[in-house]
Amino acid sequence: MVKNDSRNLPEEYQTGFAKFYGRTFFVNRDVLIPRIESERLIDIVKHYCHPELARPGRAGVSGSRPKIADIGTGSGCIGITLKLENPGCDVTLIDISEKALTVAKINAERLKVVVRIIKHDLLDNGDYDLVVANLPYIPHARISKLDPGVRNYEPHLALDGGVRGLELIFRLLYQNLSKFIILEIDDTHTLKDFVKYKKFYDIKLEKDLFQRNRYLILERK
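RESULT FIELD:
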């Protein structure tokens, strides 16, 4: 059971807004609070994929505009930011939570971006040039040890990644063969956890600002 203790209520939930990549996003307790680690995800997309995605007139997988999917979108901060930074791309926001998608829709309207919003478990049937995802990646046993402001208020559906924190990540990698996949992972995860995917992808790990393993970059061979 999630306990409520107003002493630990995060400021972002009190005000209803959070900063992300220089913009203000609406948030409530149906979505995770955007964090600086996810801002780095935007920079990684620019570093690895920007020439592939942002070139004017570049055709995507279907011969049309490049397509990006933001899976487990929550507030929509990642996908909406990618749309604003790469306006020539088509962006789809995907989440299994109807309440989270309501928040994402509010943010898309506030920031005046046109994106597709889909309720789905992981990917829909679309083909994408780039998939980004901040899926639940915290091992189940660690949930009870999280900071009270996170443990008691943020949605466990978006935090709990199963026994090893890899359940949904493995499901996504099994079903998807996009050109690029960029994921946030737990700092306990290493390249050894993903060795079985090396026959399909060139795989790299990037560290966050605190020098912890945080981002998995896969480029299809």
